[in-house]
Amino acid sequence: MICGPGAKMYQNDISRKLLEVLRDRGSDIPYYVGSGELSARLDVPREELKTYARQLTSQGYVEMVEGFEPLFIVKLTEKGFKSLE
Q: pTM for this structure?
């Protein structure tokens, strides 16, 4: 993760992009997207994405299921979807 000035903006940008990918991949019924796809689309390592996914989970924007390190899947919640409107 990035530290220092601009770190918060970078973190917010990655979190927002993660939510946008989930929104764009879903339809009327959101489904889980794997960490490999998220990593490829956002050009961010899985380990780093996992930190953002955990934060978004604790805030209620996504649901996350963790597998063997560093694998995980996430899907957008209603709160997450509404945050992008």
A: 0.83
